[in-house]
Specification:
The chain has about 325 residues and is α/β, with parallel strands linked by helices. The chain contains 10 helices and 8 strands.
Length: about 325
């Protein structure tokens, strides 16, 4: 159980590799320490991680979380569960051409499967994992409305969706009197990729938190979560390089500012990046596989950047 004196952490623990690349004992240790450090939100998906699974299907991550909760009486009241649907392959090797999608039937079936694997009766935040233009967004919204009205889902969010489809979904939700999408989950970090380039690891057409989505989120009070905020460790791990798409003069200046602030603070560059995202109201999702990585990130959440530091990091090139 967590100590009431420990501040609640705004960070999210990403469970994508639990049960596949990360074994169950390590997954349990990461989850336990996350809660001990004041962590609340845990993020997964019904398709995690089909690409590393011998079956070619997802579900391992949710199943590990379900077993962890079953082994930790009382923890369900302390944590919030976030999971995604729509990207699970219809059969092994069928992704991305043939995936579950966002039809009413697919949403009902996927939500039921997630509840079963997680061993819970309610999902705190259910995400539409990636857009599905083969289905009218109104059908998707009405299927979500069934889940929220039944109490099996508390909130709904959109990951890897263009802003205009989110707006259409929110408008329809308001029209039929149901809960609208109130959260984005997108790729976001401190460095900016060159326009027109594709980020490594971001396979979704609208997966990057761009200026239009940022403006939409600000204007409408949309909560924003950031995946891959630390560039898979490239800010600090000498064995990893920052992708070539980030190599431009603007980022040269940004890295210089980042180095200066990190040096003055005696912190890692990645810790300053996390603190900067939090200063802008963005929840970073942690994807590390080791306890020391988790500890470093949780320490970063305790940093508060001064207004002049945020201003320096925000300044245009």
């Amino acid at each position: 159980m967590t100590d009431d004196r420990i501040p609640v952490s705004p960070l999210v623990l990403g469970a994508m590799s639990f049960g596949t690349r990360i074994d169950e004992d390590t997954s349990f240790a990461l989850l336990d320490r996350f809660v001990e450090r004041g962590g609340v939100w845990i993020d997964t998906a019904d398709c995690y991680s089909f690409w590393d699974s011998p079956t070619g299907h997802g579900g391992a991550s949710e199943a590990v979380l379900g077993r962890w909760l079953a082994a930790r009486p009382g923890f369900r009241e302390q944590v919030r569960l976030s999971t995604k649907l729509g990207a699970e392959p219809l059969w092994p090797g069928s992704w991305p051409e043939r995936r579950a999608g966002l039809s009413a039937r697919a949403i009902r079936d996927a939500a039921a499967g997630s509840l079963d694997r997680l061993g819970v009766d309610q999902i705190d935040l259910l995400w539409l994992h990636q857009e599905d233009r083969s289905v009218p967004i109104e059908e998707t919204v009405e299927a979500l409305a069934e889940l929220t009205s039944a109490g099996t889902v508390r909130r709904v969010g959109a990951s890897n969706h263009p802003a205009w489809r989110v707006e259409r979904a929110r408008a329809h939700a308001k029209q039929i009197g149901t809960l609208p999408i109130d959260a984005f989950q997108l790729n976001s970090t401190y460095l900016r990729a060159r326009p027109g380039t594709r980020l490594p690891g971001v396979i979704h057409r609208f997966g990057v938190f761009d200026d239009e989505q940022r403006d939409y989120a600000t204007e409408h009070g949309i909560e924003t979560w950031a995946y891959t905020p630390l560039l898979s460790g490239a800010y600090d791990n000498p064995d990893k390089t920052i992708a070539e798409v980030y190599d431009h003069p603007g980022n040269t200046r940004r890295l210089a500012v980042l180095d200066e602030i990190a040096g003055e603070r005696g912190a890692q560059r990645g810790q300053i990046v996390l603190a900067w995202l939090l200063a802008h109201g963005i929840r970073p999702i942690l994807g590390g596989s080791r306890l020391d990585q988790l500890e470093t990130a949780m320490d970063a959440a305790l940093l508060t950047l001064a207004p002049e530091e945020v201003e320096a990091m925000d300044a245009p090139a």
